[in-house]
Write a sequence for this structure.
């Protein structure tokens, strides 16, 4: 396309974003690169879901370590759990529709959590439960630590 807005997207994303925002503010909708705007908005949504999955994975990895290695429990593990609970809760508040994705996200995150926990504990993955032993309520309950 000859439209500079379309060309800028591939050559200088930052300039494209600033220019596109200005066009939108000015109401010049016919000059806006709609296809790439739509793609970027969808990408932002996927990014939130990835962030939720990653935060749940780190949280569950530490809950697994807490359960499997009680002799190695540390303040650091506890604070990591607390931090991730805060971040997951905040993410769900700013994007409440992600709550509808939580069940599928929990299983994806658990798979990742087992790998993280196995790497950090140097235990075999088979030591950890095959299915996720934690519900979202467990994950977010600040009093919950598996025994």
């Amino acid at each position: 396309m000859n439209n500079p807005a379309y060309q800028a997207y591939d050559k200088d994303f930052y300039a494209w974003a600033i220019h596109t925002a200005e066009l939108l503010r000015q109401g010049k909708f016919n000059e806006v690169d709609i296809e790439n705007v739509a793609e970027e908005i969808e990408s932002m949504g996927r990014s939130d879901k990835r962030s939720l999955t990653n935060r749940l994975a780190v949280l569950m990895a530490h809950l697994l370590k807490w359960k499997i290695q009680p002799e190695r429990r540390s303040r650091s593990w506890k604070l990591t759990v607390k931090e991730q609970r805060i971040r997951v809760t905040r993410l769900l508040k700013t994007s409440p529709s992600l709550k509808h994705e939580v069940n599928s996200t929990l299983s994806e995150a658990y798979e990742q959590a087992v790998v993280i926990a196995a790497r950090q504990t140097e235990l075999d993955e088979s030591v950890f439960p095959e299915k996720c032993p934690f519900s979202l309520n467990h994950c977010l309950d600040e009093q919950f630590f598996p025994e």
